[in-house]
Amino acid sequence: MLHKTKGIFFQKINYSESSLIVKIYTHRFGLQSYLLKGARKKKSHTQVNVLQHLALLDMEVYHRGNANLQKIKEFSVSRHFKEIPYNVRKSAISMFINEVLLKSIKEEEANASLFRFLENAILLLDVTQEKVVNFHLIFLIQLTRYLGFYPHNNFSEATPYFDMNEGHFISSLKHPQVMDESKSKWLSQLIKVSLENRNQIQIPHEQQTGIMEKILEYYTLHLPGFTKVKSMDVLRTVFL
Predict the structure, then answer these.
(1) Contact at 8 Å (CB) between 61 and 71?
(2) DSSP line for 225-237
(3) Domains in the chain, ordered, with CATH?
(4) Model confidence at 9: pLDDT above 80
(5) CA-based angle 114:120:121, to the nearest 5?
(6) What is the pLDDT of residues 202-226, one digit of tens each?
(7) Residues 118-137: pLDDT tens digits?
(8) Sign of CA dihedral 209, 215, 219, 221
């Protein structure tokens, strides 16, 4: 059956000599893999070049519930990015977010709230004229709402350490999966702000990478199979 749906492009993989498999997070069906036959041929009419990190798509797809590979009738970009492909920092953040989503989202079922969050975050990253230095950190925290391990922000003088196993703040450094007091304090501040208000806090440059590493460690503890995010090195470079 043919369906119309929005989609967010995640990944393309070469398949045979002339085709592609593309992974797209869809509004109607969650994460799906689609076969694009002949897409790599020189005379192909498929617009493969528009499939960039986090591209927002309008799609017509054939969907069978028991199929590992679905088929696309046609697709087009619903919103052409103005800055993400051309702004070094925004491009690095989009690459990082794309990789995190690939490692985090596995569900082949609709989640309208998650799709709306991702779509709004991507659009905000593209159009914002304010600094984006905290964007990826707040995105990582906000994403955990939809993945099921959003941290409880009970930070206080009595509970100044974040326990990554339990997802809340505790009174002492009682095991290796507890953040130190400095990183815990900044995490508490990051939990409080939205992507739109990200510049209300100013994290010292020397702390940013360490906080990002700890948040990704938090992901590793709560998402089976979540592996190292390689594009983190790119972020380190562009935000030096």
Answers:
(1) yes
(2) T----TTHHHHHH
(3) 2-77 (2.40.50.140), 88-238 (1.20.1440.120)
(4) yes
(5) 90
(6) 998 888 999 999 999 999 999 999 9
(7) 999 999 999 999 999 899 99
(8) positive
Q: What is the DSSP letter of 83?
A: S
Q: Measuring CA to CA, which residue among 7, 20, 85 is closest to residue 46?
A: 20
* Cβ atoms within 10 Å, residue 200: 11
Residues ≥6 apart with Cβ < 8 Å to 56: 6, 7, 8, 9, 77, 78, 79, 119, 122, 123
Q: What angle do CA 223, 183, 100 make, to 5 degrees?
A: 30
Q: What are phi and psi of 236, to 5 degrees?
A: -55, -45
Average pLDDT over residues 169-183: 95
What six digits make up the tokens of 118? 């991702």
Q: CA-based angle 232:181:208, to the nearest 5?
A: 25
3-state secondary structure 196-210: CCHHHCCCCHHHHHH
Radius of gyration (C-alpha) of the chain in whole angstroms: 19
Report the alpha-carbon angle 110-113-116, nearest 5.
100
The predicted structure's pLDDT at residue 107: 85
